[in-house]
Structure formats: structure tokens, C-alpha cells
Amino acid sequence: MERNSRTAREPPGGTERERQNMGIRIALAGNPNCGKTTMFNDLTGASQYVGNWPGVTVEKKEGTYAHALDVTITDLPGVYSLSPYSPEEIVTRDYLLGDAAAAGGKGSGRPDAVINLVDATNLERNLYLTTQILDLGLPVVVALNMMDLVEKNGDKIDVAKLSARLGCPVVETSALKGRGMDELLKTAIDAAKKGTPTASDLRFTSEVEEALGRVIDVLGTRVTPNVARWYAIKLLEGEQKTIDKLGLPAGDLSAVASIREALENSQDDDAESIVTGERYDAIGDVVSETVKKSLKGATTTQKIDRVVTNRWLGIPIFIVIMTLVYYISVSTVGTLFTDWANDGVFGDGWLYTGTEQYDEAVGVWEENVAAAEEAGASESELALLAEEEPDPAEFGVYIQGLTPVATEALESIGTAPWLISLIVDGIIAGVGAVLGFVPQMIVLFLLLSILEACGYLARVAFIMDRIFRKFGLSGKSFIPMLIASGCGVPAVMATKTIENEKDRRMTIMTTTMIPCGAKLPIIALVFGAIAGGDAGTTWWIAPVFYFLGVIAIIVSGIMLRKTKMFAGEATPFIMELPQYHIPAVKNVLMATWERVKSFIVKAGTIIFLSTIVIWFLMNFGFYEGAFGLLDTEMEGYIQYSLMAGLGNALAWVFAPLGFGNWESTVTSITGLVAKENVVATVGILTSLGDAGEADPSMWMAFGALMGGSVPAIMAFCAFNLLCAPCFAAIGTIRRQMASAKWTWFAIGYMTVFAWAVGLMIYQFGMLLSGGEFSVWTAVAVVVLVGMLFQLFRPLPEYKDKGGAPQAEAEQGVA
Amino acid sequence: MAEGQGKTLRDVAIGESATVRRLTGEGAVKRHIMDMGITKGTEVFVRKVAPLGDPIEVTVRGYELSLRKSEAGNILVA
């Protein structure tokens, strides 16, 4: 073990040799949970680029080696095998085979060398991927990671022998402790420069080797010798992806088929099982020759799991941890910071001390104003009173927010009112909508990264799987849905931790159906409008909408699972429960930063642009024959705006839902900016200003807007809760889906589903309250029957199953 | 059906081990089970069942793996 440390003393970079390494590309491959992320962060430092592999939601990370900038390191997704089933596996093998074009990228060829990171505490399973990488005919360096843990356990690994058996250099590392990094890179760069493919002496039993030899003969010169073994094995296994790719003539295919059949008959098993078994058998031999395990009882991980996933304690512990995550990120710390940013930076400002006295003074002042108004005070008297409004600056440390500061600054230099409005109400509000979420995201992702890195998230899936798989979601979908009851934006970002792409997409599509914090005022308004403040008999209205959210998710999950996009075998749940680790601070911070940054950049663009468009529609219009900026101080200005025109144009869509007037339509559209805007817009439309959702006059006005019909009010609320979420969430969905097509599909599905639910509520509600059976009632019945059919019909058979979902996904985004 | 002939990993009691005889089923799921190290002749120890009764946790090749009972039903053991 000391053998390797000598060379590590050399200066790691900047020598003449290093400068000659023009554009070396090194791929980092390994199992999930083997410390790959830590190693990548160590090697590349801050010079990382994080994106997505083309067409899939799989993350692609690239960076340059911190000590030699011409060495590019690509962090491949963590995989257990190079099978062609999951998007991660396909991305990895296409990249290693140089089939980047197949994955949609520009065909940049194969990497110059592969660093295969191996968890030394679990050699047997980790080397399975190694044996496949060795077949690819690339220079390979094996990094024996987590050696510090191996030593701590008292185990011994004969590195020299392992290297001889695998036929490639083996370097001991500990990514967490930064051990062996420079030597590893040096070895990999040397291997890349030499370019000699690894020659492993790992062989299968003679019968299988003979069969392989015959397949190689059939292949002939159609593949280069260094990848001949890889293709021969794939052909022997009968892998369709490889058969399609090589396009062999029928004669050759039947020759291969007969070789396969002969082998299968003689071993009484299918070729795939035979090859897999052979690989593990060969590894078993290598491991027994090179590893000496000190016999020990239960590992630390097993001891922790005795409590954490215990039959009785598992769920209570889960509830406690989730409650903590929720409280810290959604209700306390996260909101504290987000409110701070929203009210302060992008609002009026902060008052740090003396808030109580200030609030008191404002209360007194408001009472005086109200009393004066009641007493019929003249306008000049009221104006005098207005000047007496308490100034927060007199009560303590007060810092003005960006909005008043910017407004004043722009006014002082004589900026045109429309420009001030654009900058303050459009741009600052738009940027604020993006940045206001950042503090909450940071808190949430710190917590999630810690839970993920320490290994608890895998246990969450283990505990919750039974409930969620029933409606086509993963156990890990629980976390996004919990977060969604606070805010949909971090919830959609949190889907990142779901491994399976189908589950991830499904969760993204359904998670914002849970009423978030900003939708609560809508529920409160509806509650008031229906109940009129009589909480005793209508207490059930608020819970009903939460149930509606949960039921919508379940129904959508079951229905979508039977569509062609999501069809296929139920997502398997064959998942490693990784060892518990104390998370590396650097990883947690970098993971958090990455997600926050990608939110700001990718989601931010969409949020920002949409906010400005909505501002334009709201503030511009035709008034007294002239097009221009409307005076927002004017009573009912909104009916002259472009937005009202848009509302009029779209209102017919909502007529069957009971609220087909332009006001309700405009309300729903402004809800796209932020759901709390629904209440504010009702205020503007009904000329009640910012009366708020708790004001009885607002309830009355809103009820009147809906024609006083309870079914219409309920339908309006259901539609606004379930339809496309706010722009911030849509932007985040776009970021997470990494595909415009999937984003539109998600938004479209939500909106159509919301419309269908609203339709049924209104039509059946009207019918129950003695209304007539109309054409739209018939449509509602058809919709209901259609939904029930989709819910209860058996899973349809789609042609070309097995590989179908993959192919579908690939086509879908092409 | 003779004793042990149709026995699957699903039938193995918690706290007991079994040796894999064969995998039934096909396609991605079967391949994934094999990729995770459950191949012919492997010894699998059934460690526990999840709080809600499914999935189960097994120890195989020195690590912890969880799989659903329905998937365990595809693994014939002796």
C-alpha cells in the first residue's frame, strides 16, 4: 500500500510534460455511492460545468483538472452495469463507445482514458462494472476508493495482484480525505497518452470463451479488434440495441443465434444469465485471491438500520425527520429568509428594531383616518392626516427596500412613468420573484443534500415504497410532495433525488397539484365566499381542497401510468441501501450551489420574461381611443387593458365551468405570475383594492363575480389550484424536465385535467342543486366515464414492450 | 410440485439465507436483478421487511439490497 505513495510527491501540474497533454479527455465511471462526486469535486474544484445529457433528465458534469487545464474530466452517471435499460446506463455506454451521436450530442469520439472508481469496501459488486468497462478496449485506470475505511475495518487488499489480474493500473485513493488524487490523475494521463487498451486476463469458462471466439469470427473486420470482445459478448447475449446498431446480414445473425442456442442448451440457461453469472464468478475468484477480510459482526450501517428502518420505529423516525425538514425549510428558516428578501429587498424595506411601537402607531393612525372618514372629513383634512402616517424610520433601524429606492431614484432623474412602472413593477418584481425563492432553496437543498449524502433518502424510498408504487410513483416522491405543500418551486427541484426517469417525470407533473402556501389565500377567499364567515357549518371546505390535491395526484398517477408515455413494466425497486456516511461538507455545499444556480439561470429566465409580458398586458391598453400606459390609480383601469381583451377572448373556455366572464379569466391568468395574485386581482377588479381574502366585502364581491353560484366558486377554486402552476414553478419544471416537449406536456396535462375537474364540479353541482341537464352536463358525464375507464382498465399492451419506454423517451425529445 | 421446487426468495423467512437457483421473468427487471449480483449460486440473506410489509431488505455479496416481494418472487432459491 505504501508502494504507490512515492510518485504522488511530484508537483502535480505545470511541468513541461503536462503542457504537452493537448486536450486529454478522461471519463470518470463507477457505481452510485462509490464517492464519485467527491472525487470529481476534488479533481475539478470550481471549474465545473453542470448540464444535462441531451434528451434525458440525467445530469452531465464536466470540468477541467485543477492542476492541468487541458485535461477535461467527464463525470458519467453512477451505474451498476452497462446494460441498455436505464437512461443513465445508455448515456454511460454511448459515451464510452463513442456513440455520442446516438445520444444526440455532437460525435466527439471516445474518451482517451477511463478512471473506473471502485468502492474498495464492496469490491465484489463494484468490479462487475469494471469487467464490462475492461471489455471496451480503452485505457482504464482503476481507482480503489475508500481505502481509509478498508484499513479502518482491518481488511487487506493485495493491490499489486489485483492490478495484475485486471490488467490495468490500480491506484489507492480516498476521495474524502483527498488521498491519492494526484497520482491517480498522473496514471490516467500517462495511460491516455500511451493509448494502449487494457489487456485483462479475466476470462470466462472455456465453453463460453469458445462461443465468444466463434462470434468474433462471425464479426470479422466489421469492428476494430479492441472492441471485438465487447460486441461479441453483446451479440452472444442477444442484445437488441447492439444487433440494431451493427446491422449484420441475416446469415451472420442466424450464425450467432445458433452459437447462442448451442450454449444455452448445454448450460440450461439463457445467454444473458450465463454471461452475467460468468462475470460474477470470475470476480469471485479475483476477490478471494486479493482480499483478506477481518471477520467482524454487524457493520455500523446494519446497526443504524436496525433502528432507522425498524418495523415499528421506522415510520415514527421518518415522520420526525420529515417534520423537521418541513419546518426548517418551509415554515421557519426558509420562509423567514424568503419573506426577508420578498418584503425587504424587493418590497418596501425592513424595520429591524422598534417594530412593535411602529405597528402600534400605524394602528392608531389607521383608526384616526377611519374615524375621520366616517365623520365626513373633507379631502384636505384627509390629505393632512395622510401626511401624519408614521414613518418607520422614526421607530428604529430602518432600511428601505429596493422598490421605493428605485422609484425615488428614477423619479428624481425625471424618468418617464411607463419606464418607472416597467422597471419597478415589471423588472424588479420579476427578478424578485426569482431571487425571493433562493434563500428557501438554499435551506431546503442543504437539508436534502445532507439526507441524500448520508444515505437516508434511500431508506425513505424503502419505507414509503409500498404506498407510492400503487399509483405509479416512487417512495422518494414523498419528499417533493411534502415540500409542495409549502412551495412548488423547491418541490420540483427536489425531484432530482428520484433515480428513475419515469418516476421523476411523473412526480414533476403531479407534485404542484398539492395546494402550496400561495394558494391558501384562494382557498380562504372561496371559503369566505361560500360560508360567509359561518365557520361552524363549512369548516370542511379547506381540507376538501387538500384532499382534492392528493386525490388529483393519485388519479393522475394511475391514469398517466397507462398512457403510452409512461407505459411499460412497473418501475422495479431493486435498489442498493448504501452505507451511511457522514456527508462531506464540500459536496453538500457544491450540490446546493449547483441546484440554486441552475434554478436562477434556467428557471429565472422564464420567470423573468413571463413577468414582464404580464406586466405589459396589465398596464397597457386602449383608453378613450388611444393606446398607451394606463393609469393604475384610475378606478377600474383594468377593463381597458390588453389583459381584459385577452380575458374576453378566452372567457368562453370557462363558460362550462360556470365562470365564463373576462374578470374570472383575467384572475386565473394573473394567477400564473403567482397564485396569491388571484386575490389581489379580484381586489382590483372589484375595486376593493387590497382588502384581502379575510374581508367580508371581498367575499361578497367575489361571490357576485361568480354569479353567486356555489358550484361555480368551487369549480373556480379547483381549476386555479390544479391548473398550470405559477411561472416560477413552470420555469423550474422546464429546468428539471430538460425538454420543452415534456414541459408542455406537463403544463398541458395539468391545465386540461384542472378544466375537466372544474367542469365536473360545476355541472354535477348544478345538477344536484336542481339545474337542467345541458349539453355540457353530458360532456361532464363523458369526461367522468373516460376518467373511470382510464382508471380501471387493465394496463394496455403497447407493441414493442421492454425497450419501449426508453425508445419513446428518446424519440420524445429528439 | 415437490418441496423446494417452486420456492422463491419471497418464501424465505426473515433472518434466513438461501442460494439462488435460477431467475424467472425477462427483460430489464431480470437483467437488473442479475446486475446487482443476484446470480445463480449466490447466497442471499433476508435481513428484514419494510415497516409497511414490502419491500424486503437482503444482504448479497456483502452489501444491502432492497427489492419488492413481487420481484423476489422471480428468484428461485434452494
UniProtKB/TrEMBL annotation, chain A:
Organism of this sequence: Gordonibacter pamelaeae 7-10-1-b
PROSITE patterns named in the record: G_FEOB
Keywords assigned: Cell inner membrane, Cell membrane, GTP-binding, Ion transport, Iron, Iron transport, Membrane, Nucleotide-binding, Transmembrane, Transmembrane helix, Transport
Subcellular location, record wording: Cell inner membrane
Keyword ATP-binding tagged: no
Region spans: Disordered: 1-21
GO MF term list: ferrous iron transmembrane transporter activity; GTP binding
Name this polypeptide is given: Fe(2+) transporter FeoB
An example Gene Ontology CC term for this record: plasma membrane
Automatic annotation (TrEMBL), chain B:
The Ferrous iron transporter FeoA-like domain, residue ranges: 7-78
SUPFAM superfamilies the record matches: C-terminal domain of transcriptional repressors
A Pfam cross-reference name: FeoA
Gene Ontology molecular-function annotations: transition metal ion binding
Protein name stated in the entry: Ferrous iron transport protein A
Species: Gordonibacter pamelaeae
